[in-house]
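Work Package 3 (structural annotation) set out to generate three-dimensional models for the target panel prioritized at the project kickoff. During this period the team completed the workflow that converts sequence records into discrete structure tokens, so that structures can be stored uniformly alongside our sequence database. As a representative example, we reproduce one entry of 116 residues exactly as it appears in the project archive.
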Amino acid sequence: MAKQCLECGEAIIGRIDKKFCNDYCRNAYNNKVNKDSKNLIRNINNRLRKNYRILESLNPNEKSKATRNQLIAKGFDFNYITSIYTTKSGTIYYFVYDQGYLPLENDYYALVKRNS
């Protein structure tokens, strides 16, 4: 008995562990499987990526300052970060991967890059 493609049901010719008749069926099947369950993750990753690009563009020299308005004007969303770092003195840095910011007075932020 020949195996059938998981997407279209056609007979599969070739390797014994093959699940799809061609790349189109493989892609279509995986897109259907991942469509709804991965939508939330995709949206969060897109938001994190956008925040990262904004911090990176405003912080080319690994240390700089920016205002809250500058960040918001570029589309930065303060709700999406990847980690928080608290120093021994209690200062709290917010990071998006290796790009971070520290809230200062008067709506200013110190932008930093964490070195590995």
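The two ends are 55 Å apart (CA to CA).
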